[in-house]
Amino acid sequence: xxxxxxxxxxxxxxxxxxxxxxxxxxxxxxxxxxxxxxxxxxxxxxxxxxxxxxxxxxxxxxxxxxxxxxxxxxxxxxxxxxxxxxxxxxxxxxxxxxxxxxxxxxxxxxxxxxxxxxxxxxxxxxxxxxxxxxxxxxxxxxxxxxxxxxxxxxxxxxxxxxxxxxxxxxxxxxxxxxxxxxxxxxxxxxxxxxxxxxxxxxxxxxxxxxxxxxxxxxxxxxxxxxxxxxxxxxxxxxxxxxxxxxxxxxxxxxxxxxxxxxxxxxxxxxxxxxxxxxxxxxxxxxxxxxxxxxxxxxxxxxxxxxxxxxxxxxxxxxxxxxxxxxxxxxxxxxxxxxxxxxxxxxxxxxxxxxxxxxxxxxxxxxxxxxxxxxxxxxxxxxxxxxxxxxxxxxxxxxxxxxxxxxxxxxxxxxxxxxxxxxxxxxxxxxxxxxxxxxxxxxxxxxxxxxxxxxxxxxxxxxxxxxxxxxxxxxxxxxxxxxxxxxxxxxxxx
Length: 493
Prior knowledge:
Blueprint: H1 6-18, E1 30-36, H2 55-62, E2 65-67, E3 70-71, H3 77-86, H4 111-115, E4 121-127, E5 146-150, E6 163-166, E7 169-172, H5 186-203, E8 208-214, H6 228-233, H7 240-265, E9 272-278, H8 317-320, E10 324-327, E11 336-338, E12 342-343, H9 347-355, H10 369-373, H11 375-378, E13 388-392, E14 395-400, E15 403-407, E16 415-418, H12 434-447, H13 460-467
Parallel strand pairs: 1-8, 1-9, 2-11, 3-12, 4-5, 4-8
Antiparallel strand pairs: 2-10, 5-6, 6-7, 9-10, 13-14, 14-15, 15-16
Helix pairs in contact: 5-7
């Protein structure tokens, strides 16, 4: 794989911008990408979920397109975000560990840095996960004008942190000291900032990319008692964490509705492509003898009973399946359901084609624009992946059509499943189909390259952010030399 140097890439993009074939600035659509951390595949109403109310998402899905097979980039938080931002699958990304602050390399392009040369305002609001403070991976070094939220995902484990991070500087939150109690609920602050960004740029008719990787419903399962969503679930018979979780999903749904209403209010609804998805496979939260796959059935269809094996953190289907919808009034025909096979690396080239930007040469994704707006409108047929590839924490998985090979650990044998007849991955066909398995494992070998992570100039502020989860950010750390690389194998789930 070859990487285009940042300076050269900027020059090429500038030339494209000035060329006669470039898309005019005032015709470039806005992009809003909303991602809900930990939302399960079957939990929203538009996917068949029965427990949790998601009226705004259901309406968005009905007015646009539902992708039933557009998978996450990985089965855990940080690596999946790196796949999304860079257009690479996890055999090529720099962030494959889930330790919390592993950075992008300095020269890597992201969706935001791809759009900046075209005059886009770029804002991120939520959980970054691609580089802690004072590393090569901070968002303001990768194309974002502003990023407010959590850089490190351990910091993001509390909704009542003492502070959030805005462009590597601390934004104090009154009355908070980490944990599950405080006076300032971080998601409200993050969402308000996202709305302000959209409002200001939308009113100014400046093209914008709003990236909203919202943390709810990821645990801790906390939501203020006076939030309207809590009133819907507070008297349910489920355990309180299950009720809190459901309320957090409905809160996110309400906030998505507010974003969509703002676009309409600003008169830019038909000029804005909006995506919504989960970030990785759901967990079987709140399991019991009565509910072996969890109360909210993240990976089990509530009507048919068909279930996907595995959860977040695994590379069976349940670890990478996410709800995924897109809406673009006037461009995406309403009421569509797509079975197209794709994953997070496809988002960067899709946005590149929509906006006229130049995608980096070293990506693995394919534009799904023809699937979104139709092949006639896109001007070409929808490209298909030869295979989809994932790796994380010793796991490896590859899918080609309906054949899927999985290896849970490097020392374990490969497993093979025929998803056309066995979507639950219950019958291992490795011994029965050696030729198919050999083909897939050879492709998997070709898909992998050794990881090359970014670096930290200092880890002091990064470690401070991690301690802030417990309100202990001011506790001194033992003196130690700053590492040049990170490879934290301990998962920050």
